[in-house]
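Give me structure tokens for this 219-residue protein.
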Amino acid sequence: MDDLTVASKAIGIDIGAYSVKVVSLHHRLGSVSLEKASEAPIERNEEGATTPEAVIDALRKAMSGIRVRKDVVVVGVSTQAAAVRSLSIPFSDVGKARAVIKFQAEPHLPFPIEEVVVDFFDAGTGTEERMDVLLTAIRKPFLQEQIDRAREVGIDPEVLEVDFMAVYNTINKCCATADGGSILMDIGGSKTIISFIRTFQLVTCCPLYTGDKKLCLVI
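Here you go.
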């Protein structure tokens, strides 16, 4: 969503467990509006499993009628594919924190640091001497898989964003949150993500690997 400050349009793609969702957003005069939205179910085989071909076919159907020109394309990455950690960095400067984040993150990750892409978000609860961050680490092969899927249908994504951050950025950009604090729940077909927001800052998130497919279908 931050990319909308420099681009007038953005396209968001969410490849979920049961369907592919696509939205087209327009940024004008400081406000963001929804232009188009579409969803296509992911077909399953006789064993109830999906295939890469079925996901690409659903993505192609969801993109039907949505034209991509100079739009920023953002592909959501499932929290299930990410390691999410809350860390305290011994620097309050963002540049210094970014320089050491991999070394700080490595002891907390279940895989070698050279196999992942690491990013972080300032939780806004630190001090002058330290920064509290919400860190995400995603394995490089998985990210490449998401890029390859998009390119199969003629899309070259500019941004890959973990889904809980995408939801938070959208809410923060388009809606008001309570000064004292808010709880944001993203209920999907196979998972639920609870995010805690304080003074307009995302403090932490808690993924629960259970969802409600029927509720999603109703919505």
